[in-house]
Specification:
about 550 residues; alpha/beta
């Protein structure tokens, strides 16, 4: 069942690549577009590409970027697609390596509540050239896994829509992956490929799946009486297996309630169309054959029940292991996120120290010194490289000497120099923290990925065990139906044989040990038949006891 549709942002929800448009503000659009294309094709990793592109935008006004974000057009069909999915009670999310400044605009226009993106680092209204966020070093699948876990759903209930190499992880892992105007590498792994800039085509594919699911549910609701009885038999088998497990009082009370419901809805044996032999000898032979046949079917049913029990145990153990590994992955994810917060704090402290150093150097006279030194170099170069008349050359020499005198008169403030040195030391310490913490965060990230991969492997094995469990249970149910049909035939045979026997057991009403034994056996036979009608297992010995007292 589809419960969530996840979209990429650039070239999917919006018609364009946001960072390429922002690049035009800094006149670096061609350089950015080249890096973007390499990332989309999978030629370079996304983390490298996003950092390199944002670095090119250093100094760009955030106010100008806001205007670009306002003007970015939505993809054709975006509004209708999101609106229709909401009407179908399907959640919508956007996971993008793009930026919150763009995504927030789209979020408001479409009414999408859940958006995961990166963020520009801004100081004094301009980009610093750095970028932060969950999708700088983390993959879209990491973000999607965290989201589905919090939402209480599975990846099988997700449709992922994207176009570039960084979308592959979530498209490949989702229940349904859709490549929208995508690169060849994405089309190769997608379940559905949609070409053409119209999201309504994606909507049509999703609605087709929803319609198919609804039709399947309708068919399931219109089961035949035979299928209902088979389901009742399956439930009875499960209830009997559950009796072998130590259960809490609450579970026992629930089981009693379930048994009472089954008693109210218990069904008789199926009607038999069995054709009796013409002679009593032939009928007795038919009875022997049917008893051998029912014994064989009972053994086969028992074997299927045994397989179902084993596979259920395997599945439950795997699911327990899955939970442990998932908890481990989440622990490492949380550790990574906490370390990344420390990394960001260290970066901020380092950058603040560097900016203070820069301001101190200019205010301490260094700016004037550099200016004068550059003027002197310029004059010296003219004297060395040009042919000048003596008067002009003497004037340039005099100007250079005057500048040198000014340079000697400039004295840097010693207290400012001392403060600058302290700030430089602080900057170096914070930079060392950034390096050390980044390495620790990467280690935690790798551990997280390792455990997430383990959970994927365990989930696959658990799903396989569950399929085997369901298959064995269905086979056991089919054998149970076969068992009931044969038992109906045996009842027909017993009635025929019983009508040709002289009446016996006249002494049953008399006192003595024999009468008590017969009465106890008959009561036991009645209990066995009651258990059978509730779907319980009946052994060959118990069948013979039913036949002895012609019960059923």
């Amino acid at each position: 069942m589809i419960k969530l549709v996840v979209f990429d942002l650039d070239n999917v929800i919006i018609d364009g690549e946001a960072i390429d448009e922002i690049g035009k503000l800094a006149n670096v659009e061609e350089d950015i577009a080249e890096i973007t294309e390499k990332a989309m094709q999978g030629e370079i990793d996304f983390e490298t590409s996003i950092k390199d592109r944002v670095q090119l935008l250093e100094g760009t006004s955030i106010e100008d970027i806001e205007k670009v974000a306002d003007d970015l057009p939505l993809m054709d069909g975006a509004c209708k697609t999101i609106e229709c999915l909401k009407e179908k009670d399907v959640d919508v999310a956007i996971i993008s390596g793009s930026f919150d400044i763009v995504a927030d605009k789209v979020k408001d226009k479409l009414g999408v509540e859940t958006v995961y993106t990166n963020s520009f680092t801004v100081e004094d209204g301009k980009l610093t050239g750095e970028v932060t966020g969950p999708l700088v070093s983390g993959s879209k699948l990491d973000v999607l896994k965290d989201h589905v876990e919090e939402a209480g759903i599975t990846l099988d209930e997700v449709v992922a829509v994207g176009d570039g190499a960084n979308d592959i992880s979530m498209i490949e892992s989702a229940g349904c992956g859709i490549a929208f105007n995508a690169k060849d590498s994405v089309k190769e792994i997608a379940d559905i490929v949609v070409d053409g800039k119209d999201l309504c085509k994606v909507l049509d594919e999703i609605l087709n799946q929803l319609t198919t699911e609804e039709e399947t549910e309708t068919v399931d609701d219109e089961e035949t009486e035979e299928a209902v009885e088979a389901e009742a038999a399956e439930e009875a088998e499960e209830a009997e297996e559950a009796e072998e497990v130590e259960e809490t009082e609450e579970a026992e009370e629930a089981e009693v309630a379930e048994t009472e419901d089954k008693k109210e809805n218990k069904k008789e044996l199926p009607k038999s169309d069995f054709v009796l032999a013409d002679t009593m000898e032939g009928v007795r032979k038919q009875k022997d054959e049917k008893e051998a046949e029912i014994s064989k079917v009972a053994d086969e049913r028992e074997e299927f029940n045994k397989i179902a029990k084993e596979q259920r145990k395997i599945r439950d153990e795997l699911n327990a292991s899955l939970k442990e590994n998932l908890n481990k992955a989440i622990e490492f994810r949380n550790e990574r996120n906490e370390i990344n917060k420390e990394v960001e704090a260290a970066k901020k402290a380092r950058n603040e120290a560097n900016n203070k150093i820069k301001n101190l150097e200019w205010s301490s006279g260094k700016r004037d010194k550099i200016k004068i030194e550059n003027e002197i170099k310029k004059i010296d170069k003219i004297i060395e490289t040009r042919v000048l008349d003596i008067k002009k050359e003497n004037q340039l020499v005099k100007n250079a000497n005057d500048l040198r005198k000014q340079l000697m008169e400039i004295h840097e403030d010693e207290s400012v120099k001392s403060e600058a040195q302290e700030l430089k030391k602080l900057s170096e310490e914070e930079h060392e923290k950034v390096i050390t913490l980044s390495e620790k965060a990467q280690e935690a990230h790798e551990e997280m990925l390792t455990y997430f991969r383990k959970t994927d492997d365990i989930r696959t094995a658990a799903d396989e065990a569950h399929k085997k469990f369901i298959e064995a249970r269905k086979n056991a149910s089919a054998k149970h139906e076969e068992f009931k049909a044969i038992l109906s035939d045996i009842h027909v045979i017993n009635k025929k044989l019983g009508s040709n026997k002289p009446k016996k057991r006249k002494n049953e009403n008399k006192g003595g040990a024999g009468a008590n034994k017969n009465r106890e056996e008959k009561e036991r036979a009645e209990e066995i038949f009651a258990k059978f009608k509730q779907g319980g297992k009946v052994s060959t010995e118990e069948i013979l006891l039913l036949q002895k007292y012609n019960i059923g």
